[in-house]
Amino acid sequence: MGLVGSLSYVAYTIGAIVCALAAIWIGRKGDPARGDRTPAIVAVALTANWCFAAASFEPGRPIVELTEIARNLAWLFVLFRLFSNDGRDETLRLVRPVVVALVLVEVMQFLLLLIARRYAVTPELALLTFDTAALFRVMVAVGALVLLHNLYAGAAATSREILRWSVAALAGLWAFDLNYFTIAYIMGSPPGELAVLRGLAAAIFAVPFAIGFTRNSSELAFSPSRAVTFRFLSLLLIGGYLAVMLGIARWLNMLSGDLARLTQVGLIIAAGALALIWLPSDRLRGWLRVTAVKHLFKHRYDYRTEWIRFTDTIGTTGFDNITLQERTVKALADITDSPSGLLLVPGDEGDLELAANWRWPGRNLPTTAAPEALAKLLEDSELILDFDELRAGIDHHGELAHIPQWLRHDRSAWAAVPLMHFDRLVGLVILARPLVARKLDWEDFDLLAVVGRQLASYLAEQASQTALLEAGRFEEFNHRMAFVMHDIKNLSSQMSLLLRNAEKHADKPEFREDMLVTLRNSADKLNALLSRLGRYGGGTSEAVRRFDLAVAARRTVEQLSQFHPVAVLRSEPVAVEGNPEAFDQALVHLVQNAIDASDTNSSVMVEVYSDGMSGKVTVIDNGHGMSPQFIRNSLFKPFVSSKNGGFGIGAFEARELIRSMGGRVDVESREGLGTRFTISLPIQAASSLIRRSNSADNNEVA
């Protein structure tokens, strides 16, 4: 007995044992109320008998063929009885003709067996008889599968709970026979390798068939996870690919000589290269995932898996060292299989500004990414934007008029998810189009809305923690400044006392004059410093007065140009109202920052002009530039500095000083190109109008 024979013996023996145990199980544990219980026991027992005969005798012996015919007839009768489980007895007459036809085709196997034994005396007749028998078996398998489909598709919901295990087992049994006899018909002989597996197939399908006859079988549900289904489809695709390659290689065997060898080697190399390039690709995996979800599952998402992945993404800070803002984008992108995304957050003026970029292609993204009107609309409607609909002209709440042009033209922009926290918009995530394009549906909208609210709470919590941390740092800063102010005040008092004593006791007029000038200047400087430091604890008490921006800017340029090239490109007289000392201090901060960011020989440029409503002072450098993330998250944050030893309060102080005068500081920057800071202060006429308007509003409130 060869290897194939030994394997066949073991396989059919296992099949006989399992089928026998299945028949006993159905007899003892099966539901006695089912009318098909006895036919099922007989069918499984005859299958065990066939496996026993196949294990005991060589293939092709009449006893093996006869037991197989008996097995098939028993299974057809079981199929016929399954139609009566949901009260279809009066409709069995519609199924009976088909079952009778299949039984007659199977009975023809007796005649073919007789012909093969007595009359197929030539190889041609033997082959014809074998092909006919195989073709009849294919017809029976196809007919049985069609009946099974109609049985399950037309059954009531309660009947499906009873039938599903039995139908699944019979479908597997006849599907295996269909493939086996189809290959046998094509090859003209039984496929030896598959013949070995027939016994194991009978054992495998007998187990779910027996389970289907237990009373609690309706509570057992076969529900594979999405991961298992996806991997099964992947293996199925790979198996199909390899089968096609094998078939082509076998077909090439018809060639001969060196041409055959050269062609086969080339085919192997090409197939391997294609497998390495195509099979592991993200696009193929995305297509498999979409196909599996679309056809095999009721819901698109496996919510348990998505929630676990979402929690891991948000809660893990170690991978790639990315910020919470970037992890927020990644968490949403992973749900929709988007390869990249952006996070926009409301700025100080209400516009949506770029806060995080997770793998979005291109560097030239605008810092101010969307207008305030869009942010307000999304906050009121909580609308998830579908950019494909917007490009098609579909408008739900008037959002079409507020979509910025760069998002309209960027075809990779696919969806925008608002992040809502207590009816307040804290961010907007722009998702890129998945590799396998599809249309957003209701399940996408529901899940993205829920996840968006969860992400918004994380961002709001981080903002609160940052505010508390800044408040703590300011508290520490104020404590330190209190001691500094106390020391300076004591020094100022001592110097003032010294000045008074010197006025009374100095003998030499020249010495007295020099000492008085020196001490008076020192006292004035210390008092000015004390007054400036006192502003950090509360509002300024200095009177607002008129001054010229051009004069103040030239004064600062002359002061700092001694250390670095600073040029005034444009200087127009602009009268504004404010605190000139505070303006000088703010402008010094900005020009000094520009000097620090520039190369030694690179000039810093200053422009002073008016746009009719505001006076503008622009500071321009050609330095290293800043990223949108740094501008948004770090530039105006106190105690955060990119310079070694920097205190990190210069830009923050400059902005606060300008704001205290009713102005604003804007910044534009590109990494590698440079930075432009613009100070805007209301001109004198506009400032007076604003003060009168504020005064009128206060009187109305009073």
UniProtKB/TrEMBL annotation:
GO molecular function, one term: ATP binding
Domain Histidine kinase residues, every copy: 483-685
Leading EC class: transferase
Record EC number: 2.7.13.3
Reactions the enzyme catalyzes: ATP + protein L-histidine = ADP + protein N-phospho-L-histidine
CDD domains in alphabetical order: HATPase
Membrane-spanning ranges: 6-26, 94-115, 135-153, 165-188, 194-211, 232-253, 259-279
Keywords: ATP-binding, Kinase, Membrane, Nucleotide-binding, Phosphoprotein, Transferase, Transmembrane, Transmembrane helix, Two-component regulatory system
InterPro entries, sorted: GAF, GAF-like_dom_sf, HATPase_C_sf, HATPase_dom, His_kinase_dom, Sig_transdc_His_kin-like_C, XrtA/PrsK
Identification of the protein by name: histidine kinase
Source organism of the structure: Qipengyuania citrea
Lineage: Bacteria, Pseudomonadati, Pseudomonadota, Alphaproteobacteria, Sphingomonadales
Primary gene name: prsK
